[in-house]
């Protein structure tokens, strides 16, 4: 347990530093470029992240599960084949995404429907999305290989630090506060992170360098599994981006900027739990693959105990420091501490119900996972539209939290009924 906490603490500390750098980037944009540019930044990053998720066609999420299973087998070249297959898929997908983006932008300008978001969003998709897709896929592979530091720190720490340094330099050197400076900084940071991950995977790619191309059967199997994981990743990891883009249709720029900040803090709060999952998820998947139920229960118990204690402490900290924290970005944000607490509150229930999605994935119940998550996303969008006229931005926060709670409780019930595994904190010991 001490070794586990030490590893988790190291990952969490590194991700915390990266998150602080991300917050600093947001503060610099808000203070130096204005809240209007911060709103454009929020929309562009959300859109680029969604395209980045689509480019690998779900292989980035499948990578953690598939590579963890393959690493338990003696056929190491199979991992190399999986990486090569993923890179090939991403190259083809990006070409299609670039063509569609160019055609869409041309149509928008020709019809006179362009807005302040159109041009920067298109550039972000073309320049930022493919690099982020590469980072996500390589990160999933490295986590599956139980190399969490190589998989996480390049994207979680190096990328924001490089972007922050370049943004500071741009603010110092250039008087013009154009959005191009922001975009250049974040794209360069992502490119540096991608280079580090590629270098970390060189030993793996050198295994059986004369190995054959992946068989047609393997490619079909990976494609079949990844289709569900594409939808799962969009609905699970990028629900925030989907909701933010939808709210940009009716909410004011100041409210979009506020939601962006609250959701970034929500992501920061989740770093500790994410670090815990990065360390224990491959072990749980391997235990499930070996049908070692006692070990599976022990690992789930450890994860649940640490995750629940951590998230309760984090929420308590936000209840005290939420108002001054939001005021760092804009003095007007300080009045919306309640919105921040509502956005983060759903994480408590998710921690209590445990790693149900991991257990379902190990039993290849991706279809069940996707169906429930899709219902959650649809519910969040419907509630946001319904509650906004009465509650304003607080209504959007409530919509998000209710949908996350529904997904967490539903996932727990599915794992219990379909996999005969109770992942909740009360069903598993802590040692």
Automatic annotation (TrEMBL):
Chief place where the protein resides: membrane
Keywords: Cell membrane, Membrane, Transmembrane, Transmembrane helix
Bilayer topology: Multi-pass membrane protein
Transmembrane segments: 12-33, 39-59, 94-115, 121-145, 157-174, 180-198, 301-321, 333-357, 369-388, 394-415
Compartments it resides in: Cell membrane
InterPro entries documented for this protein: Poly_Biosynth_Transport
Name used for this protein in its record: Polysaccharide biosynthesis protein C-terminal domain-containing protein
């Amino acid at each position: 347990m001490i070794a586990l906490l030490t590893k988790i603490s190291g990952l969490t500390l590194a991700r915390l530093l990266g998150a602080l750098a991300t917050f600093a980037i947001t503060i610099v944009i808000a203070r130096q470029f204005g809240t209007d540019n911060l709103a454009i930044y929020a929309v562009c990053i959300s859109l680029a992240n969604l395209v980045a998720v689509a480019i690998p066609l779900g292989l980035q999420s499948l990578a953690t599960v598939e590579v963890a299973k393959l690493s338990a087998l003696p056929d190491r070249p199979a991992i190399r084949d999986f990486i090569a297959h993923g890179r090939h898929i991403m190259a083809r997908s990006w070409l299609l995404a670039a063509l569609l983006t160019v055609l869409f932008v041309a149509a928008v300008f020709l019809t006179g429907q362009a807005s302040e978001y159109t041009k920067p969003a298109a550039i972000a998709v073309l320049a930022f999305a493919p690099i982020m897709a590469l980072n996500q896929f390589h990160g999933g592979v490295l986590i599956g290989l139980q190399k969490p530091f190589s998989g996480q720190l390049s994207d979680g720490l190096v990328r924001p630090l490089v972007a922050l340094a370049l943004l500071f330099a741009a603010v110092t050197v250039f008087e013009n506060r154009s959005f191009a400076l922001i975009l250049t900084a974040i794209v360069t940071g992502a490119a540096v992170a991608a280079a580090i991950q590629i270098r970390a995977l060189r030993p793996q790619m050198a295994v059986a360098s004369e190995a054959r191309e992946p068989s047609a059967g393997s490619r079909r199997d990976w494609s079949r599994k990844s289709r569900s994981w594409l939808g799962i990743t969009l609905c699970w990891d990028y629900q925030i981006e989907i909701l933010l883009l939808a709210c940009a249709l009716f909410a004011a720029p100041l409210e979009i900027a506020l939601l962006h900040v609250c959701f970034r803090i929500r992501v920061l709060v989740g770093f500790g739990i994410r670090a815990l999952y990065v360390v224990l998820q491959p072990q749980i998947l391997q235990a499930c693959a070996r049908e070692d139920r006692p070990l599976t229960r022990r690992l789930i118990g450890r994860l649940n105990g640490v995750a629940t204690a951590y998230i309760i402490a984090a929420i308590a900290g936000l209840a005290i420091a939420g108002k001054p924290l939001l005021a760092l970005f804009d003095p007007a944000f300080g009045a919306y501490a309640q919105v921040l607490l509502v956005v983060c509150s759903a994480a408590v229930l998710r921690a209590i119900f445990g790693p149900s999605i991991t257990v379902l994935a190990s039993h290849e119940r991706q279809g069940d996972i996707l169906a429930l998550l899709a219902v959650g996303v649809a519910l969040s969008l419907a509630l946001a539209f319904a509650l906004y006229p009465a509650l304003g931005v607080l209504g959007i926060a409530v919509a998000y939290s209710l949908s996350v709670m529904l997904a967490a409780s539903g996932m727990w019930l599915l794992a219990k009924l379909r996999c005969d595994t109770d992942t909740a904190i009360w069903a598993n010991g802590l040692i």
